[in-house]
Amino acid sequence: MYSLNTKYIDRLDHLRFFAAILLIFHHFRGNVNWNGHLQLESIIPLWLQNGSTGVSFFLVLTGFLFCQISNGGQENLKYWGFIYNRVLRIFPLMIFLVFIIICCSRQTSTPMDILRIITLQLNTGNSLTGWGHDFYPSGPIWTIAVEFQFYLFFPFLSLFLNRYGIKYLVALVILMIATRFNIAILKGGDIYYNVYHSIIGRLDQFIIGMILGYYYQKGIFRFLEKWKYQLCFLSTTILIFTYLFKFKKLNVIYTSLSFTIEAVLWGIITLCYIYIRLPKINKLNTILSYLGMCSFSMYLLHLPIGIMLNKLIGWQVPQDVFTSLSQSIIICILTILVSLFTFNLIEKPFMKMRIKYTKE
Which residues of 36-45 are buried (b: 16+ CB within 10 A; e: fewer)? Predict the structure, then answer.
């Protein structure tokens, strides 16, 4: 995403688009799940079943980008200018979706529903996903609450990074792991999904993005310019992901460590992709960058669009990989077309009102 406050890194938008696609394929996979065996033909079902990891990818990318904006903590940020820009980026489409939910739940809606926006409580009110999903397929809205909670913290994290060094961020990651361990011991394995939908589960994912962004600025990862290191790190990362996905989620160790491990793995993939030498196809790069800019619309709107398409066409719930992928591709195409429209109509006009918040 182009910004007044940092140099544009188009590869990050490419990866945002990929994260959105991963989540769409996950949500519309139907009854395609992993069969419990590590065979070549079971890898796709394993990834489809665990495609929700795309959320972790989004959050790592956010932390990585913000660290570039703050120049690794060296840039003084105007706090309210930073928050103002985040409101302009996030709130217009979010409020549009919130009013759709209120329309669908009019008989039971109360002023508290509006207060959810102000108090950043869109990740509460539903046992499985975000607020409002009982009335309209708006489940992904929960991440907005978690993201904005991080936005409120970030200028302080940037300041403390500059003042105390990288060890401060590392200590925060350790604190979040210990906190999840404590909660899981006290509340049992079922608490995983509460942690999943809250800042308790996600703060260290943002922070790991910041840590990797910090060392990226220092040039520590320049060795990844060589293809042999890229191949080694990418293949190892995919293998670890596959091994991680095998674990049952409702246990103490998984609840404590999985979010951190996912963040590190996605961070490695991010770094490899930034350094990898791709063919110079300017048109393709422009298209991927623009689709990445539209990924917020894709993320929020893919469920209502996909479910509507299912109803209109009368698709059966996918039972095999081919049907699942075929239907998801069609849903992706329609979601992209709608997202291009909503991005230009709702998001972009407000983005043009953003200001510079890094101090001279």
Answer: eeeeeebebb
SS3 85: helix
The structural domains of the chain, with segments of one domain joined by +, span 10-351
The Cα 132–Cα 103 span in angstroms is: 11
Per residue in 61-72, pLDDT (tens digit) is 999 999 999 998
Please report the sign of the dihedral spanned by the C-alpha atoms of residue 147, residue 151, residue 152, residue 157.
positive
Supply 357's token pair. Answer: 């918040």
Q: Are 152 and 82 in contact (CB under 8 A)?
A: no
Helices (H), ranges, 28-53: 43-49
pLDDT tens column, 311-346: 999 999 999 999 999 999 999 999 999 999 999 999
SS (H, E, C) 186-202: HHCHHHHHHHHCCHHHH
| pLDDT on residue 126 | 85
Q: pLDDT (tens digit, 9 = 90+) per residue, 45-91? A: 999 999 999 999 999 999 999 999 999 888 889 999 999 999 999 99
DSSP state of 227: H
Rounded to 10 deg, the angle between the 142-164 and 54-69 helix axes is 40
> Tokens in use for 200?
């308790």
Distance in angstroms (rounded) separating the CA atoms of residues 313 and 172? 49
Long-range contacts for 345-352 (Cβ within 8 Å, ≥24 apart)?
346/92, 346/93, 346/96, 346/297, 347/89, 347/92, 347/93, 347/296, 347/297, 350/88, 350/89, 350/91, 350/92, 351/88, 351/89
